[in-house]
Write a structure and sequence with these properties.
The complex is a heterodimer of chains A (about 650) and B (about 375). With about 650 residues, chain A is of the alpha+beta class. Chain A has 2 domains: about 190 residues, Alpha-Beta Complex (Penicillin-binding protein 2a (Domain 2)), CATH 3.90.1310.10; about 350 residues, DD-peptidase/beta-lactamase superfamily (Beta-lactamase, 3-Layer(aba) Sandwich). Chain A contains 24 helices and 21 strands. In chain A, helix 14 packs across helix 16, helix 14 runs antiparallel to helix 21 and helix 16 crosses helix 19. Chain A is elongated, with a radius of gyration of 37 Å. Chain B folds into 2 domains: about 200 residues, no CATH class; about 130 residues, no CATH class. Helices cover about 70% and strands about 0% of the residues of chain B. Chain B contains 14 helices and 2 strands; from the N terminus they run ααααββαααααααααα. In chain B, strands 1-2 form a two-stranded antiparallel ribbon. In chain B, helix 12 packs antiparallel against helix 13. Chain B starts with a helix and ends in a 7-residue tail after the last helix. The chains are: A alpha+beta (about 650), B mainly alpha (about 375). Chains A and B meet through helix 1 and helix 2 of A and helix 7, helix 10, helix 12 and helix 13 of B.
Amino acid sequence: MPSSFKPIKESRHEYALFRRRALAGFLIIVACLAALAVRFHFLQVVRHEEFSTRSDANRVLTRPLAPARGLIYDRNGVLLAENVAAFRLEVTPEQAGDLPALFDRLGRIVPIGEDDVTRFNLLRKSKRSYQGVPLRLKLSEEEIAKFSINRWAFPGVEVVPYLTRSYPLGAEFAHTVGYVGRIDNDDLARLDKDNYAGTTHVGKTGVERFYEDRLHGEPGYEKIEVNADHRPIGEPLARVAPKPGENLYLTIDAHLQEATEAAFGGRAGAAVAIDPRSGEILAMVGVPSYDPNLFVNGISKADYAALLEAPNKPLLNRLLRGNYTPGSTMKPFVALAGLELGLRKPSDTVLSTGEFFIPGQSRAYRDDIRGGFGRVDLQQAIARSVNTYFYSLALDMGIDRFSGYLGKFGFGKPTGIDLVGEGGGVLPSREWKRARYNQPWFPGETVIAGIGQGYWVVTPLQLANALATLANRGVPHVPHLLRAVQTGIDRPPELLDKAQPLPSVIQKPGDWQAVLDGMIGVVAAGTARGLGNGFPYVIAGKTGTAERFSRTDDTWTSISASPIERHQVLFECFTPAESPRIAVIVALEAGRSGASDAAPIARKILDAWLPGDQEQQARLGAAAASATPTSAVAAEVRRPGRGAP
Amino acid sequence: MIDEVTAQLRYRLGALWRKPRIDLPLFGSLLLLMGIGLTTLYSAGDLDRGVVVSQALRFALGLTLMFAIARVPPQALRNWTPWLYAGSVLLLVAVAVLGEGRGAHRWLDLKFVRFQPSEMLKLTMPMMVAWYLHGRPLPPSWSTLFVVGLLIAIPGGLVAEQPDLGTALLIAASGAFGVFLAGLAWWRIGALLAVFASAVPVGWHFLHDYQRNRVLTLLDPEADPLGNGWHIIQSKIAVGSGGLWGKGWHQGTQSRLEFLPEHTTDFIFSVFAEEWGLVGVLLLLALYIFIIARCLWIAAEAKDTYSRLLAGAISMSLFVYVVVNGGMITGVLPVVGVPLPLISYGGTSAVSLLAGFGVLMSIHAHRKTAPA
């Protein structure tokens, strides 16, 4: 195409200049792009490893998977603690926006209490804003349905399934099985962080606390791909399943436990039934009790206040920390001490005149009957609970030998049961008084210690443990609640190894027989006569009626307490007398006498225990006949399932 | 009247087919680039066809504009240049007074279309510089340089004030390349650079807080990894994790899982680098170098000073886009809103770039040795 005009200013010089500059420019461009290429090489090759790792760290989140907590059964497979599927409402603060307004709107669909909001705010502190925080727990079907319809209006609010601990038998086992609760700061300090990364609850009391390590299991994890908002995308990339906790089979018989609780009829007190041959706790009841389910997800203020203000302190674990004056239940032990120490023979007699005096002192120590019981030997002294016999025996013994021998039955120290928070009671001794009051010991204190009064303090568990040792002819066992452990659902429960038996604390079998005769006398013709009527086995027992208030106390003189509530009453017994298979103690905080109030409760417990025992005896007999002793042991632990034997 | 216009239009459009005045190597490599752009966009947009279609429509519009401009002789362009320049500066003033935009006044709403007048200057600025230098003795003297400086400073200052430092930089660069190619003596270039370098501390004073943050963040992105440093850190992770061969198309987790912000626009190069690796990056850079080289060759073949300078400035501007964007996503330059040519999602940039290539095509068609 011919040009229609001449360039205004065209020169060879300008053209050459341009070509040089264009070339220079191009070289600069190539240099710059080469530098850029070097930079890409540096990032993509030299530092590739590092950025690759960071890219994975960005997108892959390792999420801990909490193990399913082990279940707890009674000795026959009755479920005591289980994991129940439930639904809760979770709010993700990042997406939810204005929270108070949200709670207000949400509250019109699903009731939200003040406690819910308090807990929400508490839990929120430990979470990131993109994590869901539980707001309402245990939604009902109706609530779920109502929310689902309105779900579109609540971004960042979700219904989330979860497993929650449940105690189907409720209050009956609150003081033994205990409960789990949310992990708090104190728990965090003692728990292994990795192990508990996905776990929300931990055993707080009872078996749940003591066997936390067995029940918890091992956590697993899953690797999931997440986006920049930390929301999971697709299926997990890798998954290691958590290992569930062990299922525990307790020594307790839920059927006997239930009967024991019922036997109290709501009166405040405690009872322990124990197998003297092994130390297995068969029943363990403190009344009143409380519903452990309330504590699992945080108890509401109102419920907690109600429990604190309730009469007779339901939250107190009487079995482990209840302080009782043993009173006359101590007499068989004191009698045994007299025989073993060679201070008395069974046939030695003491004259009971109704009053006992320490030589040279004027204070009178009384018998239960004005005028006394006359001349009594050891058997009668136990059977009729003659104080004078034990006053003189204790005085002869002296406090040092007294506390030295009775200490062998575990008084004055925790029994070592597999529960936490056990109290030790008080075994009167010179050392104890010196340590406690920094005062010398007086002989009068020895005298009243001889009948289980004075400084004496026992917990129901301690007394039951001592009684079991006595019943087992002096051979002690550590009382315990765990009987068998199941380490996998496809594996049978395995019985725990039995502890090596300790040597008997009783030197001469004759001494034991003499005390036994006295205790049989209690039920046959003594303070608790008639208690064994219609019972197939011989029952050996001892009543105890301790004064709730000191006679020098103002309360006693004003008699503000009615005669019914004047005493702390106890009863201890075991059966069959010659080879005991159960030992029972019953302690009531208020009553007229051990015989009239505590003993009938003990009899009801024995009645409830009897059918199971007879069935077992029949089975053992049959097993012995077919000469396969192991099958009987195996049959003792049955497969899980509800229903009493 | 309307009939005349449509007849004229029909004739001109028909001419596109009868006499396509295009450089085939340049056109082919542009198509290749756009193909890469759409493919990357499809992945970065998480397989959203809408985004790809809308970008393809912009390409179509830009290509139409390119063909149309290619038919306009450079002489005509030169005659219109002062008016186009004055018009675009006036629009900038209008934007400063009436404009709207997110935080920055960049957009002009013309009811049926919203556009950024600053984009026009990417073309009218080198045109104006070329027009002015065309009539001056070269190499430029100080007085010539002073006038060119004013021509650059007025619109550059207006755009920087919007504030859109990235675009202001690109506009100023396109003007400066004109002077450079006109043969400004090296010692004068050196003196100018020394003056600018000494003015940096003063300039720092005039920067907005967010702009200062971007520079400070560049020096130490880990100081605020979830805030100001997030873009740079995530972009470097995307690029670095791509490695030599890349993670593969649509396998880039950084963009797919939304760790990488702006991954369809300013940071699309990071997505490309993550998915295609160093090999892909080198091939892409090679394609850009080819395009720039071809453009410079077209400039060298041009008929007059105006065409030469204009073509040269446009081709060198293209390089600024690539280096600034590449430097940004690899963490060597601050975060400024400079798109990757024909790859980043965004309308005005694609259209103005293709319009620029239209000018190059026109210059090519009217080159010294142009066939009759």
